[in-house]
Amino acid sequence: MHRFFITPEALRGEQVTLTEEIVHHLVVLRLSEGAEIVLLDGLGTLCHCRLTGLAKKTGTATVLVRSKEIERSFPIELIQALPKADKMDLILQKGTELGVTRFLPVQTNRSVPRLEPKREEQRRQRWLRIIREAARQCRRPLLPQLAPLATLDSALAGCQSALRLMLWEEGSHALESVLPQQIPAGAAVLIGPEGGFSSEEVAVARRFGFVPVRFGPRILRSETAGFAAATILQYRYGDLGGAQS
Asked: Start and end of every Ribosomal RNA small subunit methyltransferase E methyltransferase domain (predicted)?
């Protein structure tokens, strides 16, 4: 059954007004009145619904059954320095598929893109759409959070994760050597831009408890390092390896 995300407010009643984005998908899928779909609020609530009205840009649905779905992935915060071009789109899409629970885009000294304030909200809305579509496609019941673009210092200062890892090729530890045997409450993974971190940024990260780690002899790209880290952590502690039942 086709699944779509909608705001928690929209699912409070038994009659649901569908967004234009959802209606567009329904039209493309050639669904009509009477068809049944699943609407999710991104917080774990699922509503089995029947379409009761469908026009070109508007639609309504009636809630038939409400239920809760628990996500068992390991909590991962991905603190990602802005990469070049549209690589952040890929990071958000694949990170969502791999169980990242929160994305924190940051501006670093060597970040090439410099988003203007007037374009930041436009870019944010695009990123949110990418996250929603990726979560819908991979059937996640929860939507990952997307923090506003921040400086590196402010993002690190607000980090609450128990395990804090920084992918850095110099003076770092093998990842396996720093992973605890017991499952931690969650992990934050810090990824630098194409040009890497400056020595000052490495010092700041260390001050906030981030441990520099490496995967092995190869240096991964900024847009793929987070995928590798998320996969390893989900296999070790999350739902990719069966650590959580």
From this structure: 73-234
